[in-house]
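Message: Study each token:
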Amino acid sequence: RITGLKDSSPHDLARLTEGLSDFSKEVCHWLGETYPAYASGLTPDRVTLRTHEEATRALRLMARNDLLHIDNFPTRPTQGRRILRLYVNIHPDDAHVWSTSERFGDLLHRYLQKNRVSTRSEQEWVSAAPSFLRLFRSDRPACSAYDLLMQRLHHFLKEDESFQGRASRKLWSFAPATSWLFFSDVVSHAQLRGRFALEHSFFVDQNVLVYPEASPLTTLI
């Protein structure tokens, strides 16, 4: 299912559908070959073609990619699974510039200085939380306490002017035809500039993680 394509001809729609489908197949094959331990626990999520320049996009605060954040998908709850994302720079000439900063443990400590987090077992973190909206949208995936916390942390970081202005950063420049892969729920990151990229997201089950102790869910237990 393709979304976000405006004023397209049937030919353009067919080309885009075929291109994204081929990209997804190739990425899934590559991940299975390169990281076989993860293959049984990978669930493909969305594939996107990013055509806008990140440095000049006009977005609301919570949608801005140029602010340091960890990833959370409000409409696609993870229920404790990891978020793995692969990007490819398909611009013919220009690099994509990113920055990374603190990891989840430090981010959680920052959050706990101003907010209280209840102690829960793993099952309590990943079980579906009651939702008034699901009374009217039964097709909406159920959020868990874990998803709700990750969403609050995502918002907290973007609203924290001190963190955005003073956090130490490492800059990354990804040249044309470069790809990069990372767990986007554990390291704070920001997309500073770049146009034209392909991106594929995956959910990764906890039971296939090579280093489960590094996952946010394990940190919370």
Summary: The helical segments are 10-34, 104-112, 122-126, 145-159, 161-166, 216-220.
